[in-house]
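Late entry, S-adenosylmethionine complex.
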Amino acid sequence: MNLNMPARAAPPRPDPPDGGTTAGAQTRFQRPFLKWAGGKFRLLGHLLATLPPGTRLVEPFVGSGAVFLNAGIAANHAADANAHLIGTFVRVQEDAEGVLAEAQRLFAPANNSADAYYRLRDEFNGDLRPTARRAALFIYLNRHCFNGLCRFNRRGAFNVPFGRYRRPGLPVEEVRAFRHVAQRTTFQTATFTATMAACRAGDVVYCDPPYVPLTATADFTGYTGIDFGEEQQRALAAAARELAGRGVPVVISNHDTRLPGNSTVERAANSFRCRASSVATAATGLPPRK
Ligand SMILES: C[S@@+](CC[C@H](N)C(=O)[O-])C[C@H]1O[C@@H](n2cnc3c(N)ncnc32)[C@H](O)[C@@H]1O
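Prediction complete; structure with ligand written out below:
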């Protein structure tokens, strides 16, 4: 993915992508308030049909939350290694109106400029306290940065450039809808191994890991500043196998089933292999692995 800074002289662009929408998905499903690379909003119709029943949905790679928001399961556990993301979710859960009040100020037209963007990005990187202001800044950055990306450098600083969008909108209704589902959701900053180890009978687990890069330039695993490579894929396979052995169903979205690590993941999913494969097909257009 090309993350080069867009030319400052270029005209403003329409709103950033949000992982895609379809007319059906727009009317049937709740849209998350964050744009998220690899977000599953447009695949929900297919994906939710593959989820086995359970009393609690566990998402070790929750991202924007598109899946738990729409799964309609009695309880959710939403985890991600991205502490800024989970911190934002917790603030919305506890004080959605406070976050929205801060965000209204940030979404003023005067803040839709490169100068304002880089000033507010510095503020976000410089003050890590879990305030409503910081959650609002995260939403502001998500809507004003290049392609709605979430990327951190090795020192943990958000480093996506300004996106130059015409009129980025504050997703007020999406924040309120998220807060509603958040009342029956626990949030945790955790790596997938810790999240999966804590799963119990009655859980259903949906895993949507970062894509394994197909080429050096296709690398997009920068949500957390930690790479997600083949070793991580194998650890995910082992965790899925362990859960399947304990009778906890696991569905995994795969980007490319041709990779050796991913075929291991598919085998680990065991009785859910068909479902995992068809989810992979929906995500990639690749035929299901036979
Ligand atoms: C493809 S996205 C998930 C998208 C999500 N299903 C949605 O609909 O928005 C992958 C997520 O995995 C998270 N992640 C990356 N490495 C992780 C790890 N080791 N443990 C847990 N989460 C991780 C990233 O922060 C990112 O949010």
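DSSP finds eleven helices and five strands in the chain. Will revisit in the morning.
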